[in-house]
Amino acid sequence: MQRIYEPADLLEAELLQGMLASEGIEAHLAGRHLLGAVGELPVSGLFGLLVEDSDAERARQLIAAYNAALPLPGEEPEHVPGVLLC
Description:
Elements: E1 2-5, H1 10-22, E2 27-30, E3 48-51, H2 56-68
Antiparallel strand pairs: 1-3, 2-3
């Protein structure tokens, strides 16, 4: 297994895990059980998405595409350009 991405928080981790699952890639979230130790442990590096070696490159491409996505014109709030509110 390879650690392919370090999500910012549990919400992003679960969102990406679901996205990868929808593409047929099983991802495991390392560090989920460390969430209760926040404050005692460093903030960064708690979470990591792991996939099988054979899925690593495709998973990285999907996550890169997700991170590069922009809101469609007209779907972003005027007071916060470049941000899509769901």
